[in-house]
């Protein structure tokens, strides 16, 4: 055992015989440990409530509070504190029944008197490694819990922003039915609808590349541009061009949006459709019969520079 790794390790030695405590203390101090002594189980429990120990060497046969009882209470104390504290029994008992009873009380290991110090040294080293692994695990769990809280906070903020976009949607009960089924909590699916001035009803159905929060990020500039342009009554061609420009400036090159933009003049009955890299659009009658199939004519939004953008649209009655 390399004593340089054991400096500042604190061991509690519990025995009602002073000579036994002195023997263990001298051995442990020679190995670089800090040693604290307790002459009874009650004193040991009190010390564990006040100080932090890395390991306990516990005699079993003691008056007032024996080692089994003290170990059980110390283990319950450390369980509440979420700290693993190994307890090695050091006792003259050597029967199988005594071993089973002692271990059932919460001990982690057992060594008989007279003590074989090489064996004791090996057991201490092994249990300190186990304690160190527990501590590493606890630190990682703490870090994960902190990260999870941070991610939940971010998730709530993003969720609020997404819900705000959909609350602004103008979805007349008689005019539109929708079904969006995302795979995860966040996604790049987007459905926006708004009634602009002069009876221009605008709708955007989009699907951003990627999954999860990365894909959802693209929905923010898209919805801001959509509602702003809808409220000033711009033609659909200009709306498509402006949203494309906003996405290209805001998003990295690998995030873009396959989309369909629709603008309906509810007074004239004319409908204009812009479609970019999205599956075909179907126009059906009240009986479900296909009247027209419209294929995408444009690149996705957010890909082309403004001077390259030449929107092609379909105009239907």
Question: Keywords, please?
Answer:
8 helices, disordered N terminus, rod-shaped, 41% helix, 317 residues, five-stranded antiparallel beta sheet, alpha/beta, five-stranded parallel beta sheet
Q: Could you provide a short overview of the structure?
A:
Helix content is 41%, strand content 21%. It has 317 residues and is of the alpha/beta class. Strand 3, helix 3 and strand 4 form a beta-alpha-beta unit.
- How many strand elements? 12
Separate helix tally? 8
Binned strand content: 15-25%
In which order are the strands of the major sheet placed?
2-1-3-4-5
Q: Outline the biggest β-sheet.
A: 5 strands, parallel
Query: Class by helix and strand content?
Result: alpha/beta
Distance between the termini: 88 Å
Radius of gyration: 36 Å
Question: Which stretches are low in confidence, meaning pLDDT under 50 for 5 or more residues running?
Answer: 1-7
Which range best describes the helical content: under 10%, 10-25%, 25-40%, 40-55%, 55-70% or over 70%? 40-55%
Envelope shape: rod-shaped
User: What are the secondary-structure elements, in order, as H or E?
Assistant: EHEHEHEHEHEEHHHEEEEE
Average pLDDT over all residues: 88
